[in-house]
Design brief:
By secondary structure, the chain is of the alpha/beta class. The chain has seven helices and four strands, in the order αβαβαβαβααα. It has a four-stranded parallel β-sheet with strand order 2-1-3-4, sandwiched between helices. Helix 2 links the parallel strand 1 and strand 2.
């Protein structure tokens, strides 16, 4: 494949790739504050960049080919409104419906395996995926894998360093992959307060004065390089496993 980007092909070329067994990757991002030191597009950029490079890795190492759709740049972000700017908040019901109809469009084209890859851990898309699978399985199966980032952090870095949002994981990735977007002099040196993730009205401003949840001060480009390598290899394995499950009708 000359490219793993869905948008790089004509409709006839896409049909040929579907017939050859390509799966589809749907990255979901969002636009929200990422502390005082990172650009508000990080989650959208991250979801698409991981999907594309992991698709390349999966093709090279696992003989699994994938087409990656453009990342959806907007999603539910109510927990960020307390910072006053830098967000686009889409109601959960609207976001869920949008994702559902993206999946339906892909199934109608003939894809038999779809992976929804979230850029934000707060995206609750289980109902949309379950509803889709109830209608289209076994001809097409959508997967919503759990994000591996916390486990990767604990394996590669110091698990005692707290995280959650715009933290040392995120900042290290940004320092490695796109350092020009990092405001080095604005990386907070303090950690946020402990967050109640079960709060039905979660507001990050209640727990953090900077927008960072956890600790961003332990970030480095070298750590970002090692994290990125692990993220890509792990995600490629997840794509491989999703493809295998679909082939087995799971």
């Amino acid at each position: 494949m000359k490219s793993h980007k869905f948008i790089d092909y004509t409709y006839l070329e896409i049909k040929s790739l579907i017939d050859a067994g390509c799966l589809a990757i749907v990255p979901t991002g969002c636009t929200e504050q990422q502390g005082p030191h990172l650009a508000v597009d990080f989650d959208t950029w991250f979801a698409e960049a991981v999907s594309l490079e992991a698709a390349q890795h999966a093709a090279r190492c696992h003989d699994v080919r994938a087409l990656v759709l453009p990342a959806m740049p907007f999603g539910p972000t109510p927990e960020h409104r307390g910072f006053g700017s830098g967000y686009v908040n889409i109601p959960h019901s609207v976001h869920e419906e949008c994702v559902y109809f993206v999946l339906e469009s892909l199934a109608e084209q003939g894809f038999d395996t779809i992976v929804v890859w979230r850029g934000c851990g707060e995206h609750r898309l289980e109902e949309a995926v379950d509803r889709f699978n109830a209608k289209f399985r076994p001809s097409c199966v959508a997967h919503l894998p759990p994000l591996p980032y916390h486990d990767i952090w604990c394996h590669v870095a110091d698990p005692s360093v707290s995280g959650g949002h715009a933290d040392s994981f995120t900042t290290s990735i940004a320092l490695h992959r796109r350092p020009d977007t990092v405001r080095l002099d604005r990386i907070p040196s303090t950690s946020s307060r402990e967050v109640d993730w079960n709060d039905p009205h979660l507001d990050f401003a209640k727990y953090s004065d900077t927008g960072v949840i956890g600790d961003a001060s332990q970030a480095s480009a070298e750590l970002g390089r090692r994290l990125w390598q692990e993220v890509i290899s792990t995600t490629a394995e997840i794509f491989r496993d999703c493809r295998g499950q679909s082939m087995r009708g799971l």
